[in-house]
Design goal:
single chain; 2 helices; 116 residues; 19% helix; 6 strands
């Protein structure tokens, strides 16, 4: 099992969510994230200078079976890309074990609801 953490633009969340559902990834966690990038500039809007060094993004966290890793990453890459600086990052790490609290299932079976 692998854990995918993707930091994306807020404006691309709807597209990423839709393509993940189309790819068979129906459960993931997302939460607001603020990052500091290389760019150091301020923007002026109506005479007020705003610091843009802290960028608001969303972090999506998904645990997938190894066989779903590549298609999930490709789905995120395709949906989140604008081609501009600040599109985000994807990180992949190993998950040793997972458990479903309600049933006690562990491993791959704990990630998805099996057909009854």
């Amino acid at each position: 099992m692998k854990k995918i953490e993707a930091i994306i633009r807020k404006t691309k969340f709807k597209e990423v969510k839709e393509i993940l559902h189309e790819s068979g990834i129906d459960f993931f966690t997302c939460f607001p994230a603020t990052g500091v990038g290389k760019a150091r500039q301020s923007r002026i809007y109506r005479g007020i200078a705003y610091d843009t060094s802290c960028i608001e993004r969303l972090m999506i966290s998904i645990v997938v079976r190894d066989i779903n890793l590549d298609k999930t990453i490709q789905a995120i890459l395709n949906a989140a890309k604008t081609g501009e600086i600040g599109d985000g990052k994807i990180f992949v790490s190993d998950i040793e074990e997972s458990y479903r609290i309600r049933t006690g299932e562990k491993g791959d079976e704990s990630l998805y609801i099996m057909d009854e």
